[in-house]
UniProtKB/TrEMBL annotation:
This is Tetratricopeptide repeat protein. It comes from the Bacteria. InterPro entries: TPR-like_helical_dom_sf. SUPFAM superfamilies: TPR-like. Gene3D superfamilies: Tetratricopeptide repeat domain. It comes from Methyloraptor flagellatus.
Length: 142
């Protein structure tokens, strides 16, 4: 299927709008479509991972993002997914790696690498977050 870049961008935006509105199922379908049309595009990986996070499945988000081509955006979301999964060391390594990659040239950069291993070092500390009915765990008090 031939999809123009602008159409793909709009489809991706629709997916993020659906996700922001709590329409996780619809957002998931949109991002599956993005991934089917452009399997190498980071938007499909990131969108599907964010849907998994919205559903309380941080492990699923980590699994999706580990398969994505490396980029600062993917590594940032991987760090966030690791943090939600409870893998603090991996989260710090990912986020530090992104921070170091965008640091000004005068800042020293330490050789920090984000892990894409199948099992985090801190697996014993990993506990799923609380799930509340109706997505209440995602809402903030007004």
């Amino acid at each position: 299927m031939d999809v123009e870049a602008e159409d793909l961008r709009l489809l991706t935006e629709i997916g993020f709008i659906a996700l922001g509105a709590g329409l996780n199922g619809q957002a998931g379908l949109v991002f599956e479509g993005v991934a089917a049309v452009r399997p190498e595009a980071e938007a499909g990986f990131i969108g599907r991972a964010l849907v998994r996070l919205a559903l309380g499945d941080a492990a699923g988000a980590v699994e999706i993002l580990r398969k994505a081509p490396p980029s600062d955006a993917v590594t940032t979301y991987l760090g966030m997914a690791y943090a939600r999964w409870g893998a603090k060391d991996e989260a710090r390594a990912c986020l530090a790696s992104v921070a170091n990659s965008v640091a000004p040239p005068t800042t020293s950069r330490s050789p920090v690498r984000c892990s894409r291993r199948s099992t985090p070092r801190s697996e014993a500390a990993i506990r799923p977050g609380p799930r509340l009915p109706g997505g209440a765990h995602r809402r903030r008090a007004a």
